[in-house]
Every structure is written in C-alpha cells, then in structure tokens.
Amino acid sequence: MRGSLLALALGLFVLGTISPASGSDGSVRFKKFLFEDFEKLYTHTEFKKVPGKSPVMTFYNEQGDLTETLDIAEMKRDQLNQIMLEHGFQTKGQAKAKDANAHDEV
Question: Which segments constitute the Selenoprotein F/M domain (predicted)?
Fold first, then answer.
C-alpha cells in the first residue's frame, strides 16, 4: 500500500479533541507537530478540525482515493514526523531544492 502513496499525494489531517487523559505534555507535543510542522513544514497537506472526534491522519493517492487512516491520538511529535516521511511527503525545503535543481538542468 505504501508504494501507491506518492510525494504528490494529498494528506488530509483531521483533528478531534485532545483528551485530558493524554496529559498536558502529550497535548503540547501534538500541538507543536500540528502548528509548527504539519502545514508549515510539509507540502500537500491540509488540516481540518472536527470537534468531538479523535485525531486521525488520512492519506489519499493522486486520484483522491482514501488509502489509509491512522489513529494518532497517542503518538509523539517525532513519530508523526516519521510517518509523514515514510509516506513520501516532502518538506517545503526539499521541494524548493528539487525545483531549483530542475531549473538548473534546463
């Protein structure tokens, strides 16, 4: 399944309520990933808040078909970033470098 997920794939991130059971430290790490990494660092991502829902990360292929959904309520920031990289998402810095190299080759 991972092979069908390309760097150009769209990722839709749905955030629900972060339960107090996850602890304030867990909530802080999760929020840091969301507000400092997810949409600012990675290309082709979207955040959507759904009140009352547990946070999940969903992945779509180029055709817009849902390919995978992960429950991320208990995951740490470094785990979430690793998932993004494993699914082929580029950081905006990587995308810029790739575009600059493509223009150099012309």
Answer: 31-89
